[in-house]
Amino acid sequence: MKKIIVIAALCMSVFGYSQVHIGAKAGVNMNKLDGENFNSNFELGYQLGGFAYVNFSDFLGVQGEVLFNQTNTKIADSYKDIFDNAFKKNKTLNYVSVPVLLRLNSEGLITVVAGPQFSFLTSGNQSVLENGKKLFKKTDFAFVAGTEVNLRPVTLYARYVWGFSDVTDFGSKANSHQIQAGLGLRLF
User: Fold this and answer.
1) Phi, psi of 142 (to 5 degrees)
2) For residue range 31-89, what is the model confidence (pLDDT) as tens digits?
3) Which of 39, 66, 68, 93 is deepest in the core (most CB within 10 A)?
4) Distance between first and last Cα of the chain
């Protein structure tokens, strides 16, 4: 019985201190697919969405987001003869990404965030008869790490996203890499 009372008191103190904050964010998404079938240069895209976070203390919190990410890439020249007739060389992939991030120094000027991200392919403007969708897998799993500068209610953020999943269904393995920077606005 003592253990239950101690656990209940601990939970009440943590959740009694915590406060939910909600906001919107938008920014640039520099991305590339790292594989021999794709150009290795970063391509410009964008991302926008919303976030919610809960602080358990001034130092620790957790943040969830739902983001729309545009990923642009180009098929490498080595596959030119195969794909020029059926597919455009430039590819735009639209993902809905859901990162769940641990926030360190959550209420300070500089916040460090890190955690997993799961993304779903929503569309790929690929080509004739939608055949391009068959080139890319429908999900991507990644790790996110970055920093935020908190100028309440505005937040400036920068992060790097390392993709662990193979995102292509043709040729050799390809992983996504993204550099994201942008602005967040905490609504409350």
Assistant:
1) -145, 170
2) 887 766 666 778 888 999 999 999 988 899 999 999 998 877 666 555 554 455 445 55
3) 93
4) 38
Contact 71, 29 (CB under 8 A): yes
Q: Two tokens at 123?
A: 């569309």
Total-model pTM: 0.74
CB-neighbour burial class of residue 180 (10 A; exposed 0-12, middle 13-18, buried 19+)? buried
| CB-CB contact of 28 with 45 (8 Å) | yes
User: 6 vs 102, which has greater pLDDT?
Assistant: 102
The full DSSP string for 123-148 is EE--BGGGGGGGGB-SEEEEEEEEEE
Question: Which residues, including other chains, have CB under 8 Å from residue 141's CB and lie 6 or more apart?
Answer: 116, 117, 118, 119, 163, 164, 165
- Dist. CA 122–CA 187, nearest whole Å: 27
Residues 109/72, Cβ–Cβ less than 8 Å? no
Query: CA triplet 95, 38, 87: central angle to 5 degrees?
Result: 75
Closest CA to 21 of 50, 49, 53: 53
> Coil, strand, or helix at residue 9?
helix
Query: In whole angstroms, what is the distance from residue 150 CA to residue 10 CA?
Result: 29
